[in-house]
Amino acid sequence: MKIPYRSALDTTPEYIPGKSIDEVIGQYGARDVIKLASNENALGPPQSSIAAAAKVLKTMGRYPDPYSSKLKSQLAQHDGLPENNILISHGLEEMIPALCRAYINPGDISIQPELTFIKYEIGVKIMEGVCIKVPMKNFEIDMDGLLNAVTEDTKIVWLCNPNNPTGTYIGEKQLVDFLSKIPENVLVVHDETYREFTTAPDYPRKTVELLKNYQNLILMRSFSKAYGLAGFRCGYMLADAEIVRQVMKVREIFSVSEIAAAAASAALEDTLYLEQVLDVIHQGKDYLMKQLRTLPGRYITVKDTQANFIYIETSYANTYIFEEMQKKGVIIRPIGSHGLRVTIGLYQENIRFIESFKSVLKDCEHIYHKSGATA
Ligand SMILES: *Cc1c(COP(=O)(O)O)cnc(C)c1O
Fold it and tell me: How far is CA 274 from CA 144, 236, 271, 315, in A?
């Protein structure tokens, strides 16, 4: 007998993680596989985090501190706000559904850009919320479109800034303008996972100051990307103390391990590591953008990025490109039917990506244009 599961699961999308190196080796026999699919940090975790984590290994026989108190007080200093405005979690992967569990009633409406992080939709739908997707404007978040979609039943709006997967950003003025117009009973999540990589002068860097005026604003930050700790699992939100209190009730109390908290503490202090990361990413970005801009614009769109990844649309089916790239040992991420997202890697990895991509595109031109077929 089939036991019926909750009907909300029928409409909840499945999260499909980036392919692993081992999977691709197994499937294609490719050697020397590189993964540029999940926006992880090409440099690996900072040595300081590895050392700090090793030191607390001996405490792992006990439950961790549910509040990650030491890290929290450090973050309060770092971000300049009281500890009761901070909630630390097992990455944002825990925080996003926990926020939904605390705030989404069945039928509540969530608004998001069409092309953004899929975990927002998963979190909403599992709580039987309704997800409204506002079309992109030239692959950018349409802030007026989001505002126009707001109704009395709107509970939450998700802003990913810079946006995954497009790498585009919302400027400070646009953000403040949006906050000033949106009703104060609508939660606005500002996912700042990629904030460290931004270079645009008008990227909103002082969002903590906005928390005073907008109690419906929630800032989310992660140690998974610029700090290189994706495997450790640690992230946090900055929000009104009441929101922190409610979300704390529904999150997993022991989810942040002592090794994750210690690694995050060390990484936060390791400014040298962060500088190194940003050097590698910004140089990689310059190289990749220069190379990608030489490709025929009729068939390929490349978006400027503020993150550690680049969004590309081609007029060819991305399943073909994705497969062929894997045969060459390069894992990237297909998005929709024609989009591709590539994570900026180390110098040699970026060169490998460009060489493989150019060669796969040549094959595409052959298949789609020479034969007269349309993509
Ligand atoms: C990678 C990513 C995160 C980070 O999630 P963690 O669970 O903290 O690793 C959050 N938001 C977006 C948009 C991301 O791309």
Answer: 35, 18, 5, 37
Q: What is the pLDDT of residues 264-304, one digit of tens each?
A: 999 999 999 999 999 999 999 999 999 999 987 778 999 99
- In this predicted structure, the answer to whether residue 362 has a pLDDT above a threshold of 60 is yes
Beta bridge partners of 111: 132, 157
Alpha carbons 80 and 207: distance in angstroms, whole number: 11
Beta carbon of 92 within 6 Å of any ligand 1 atom: yes
Strand-pairing partners, residue 187, are: 156
CB atoms within 10 A of CB 152: 8
CA of 363 relative to ligand 1 center, distance in Å: 34
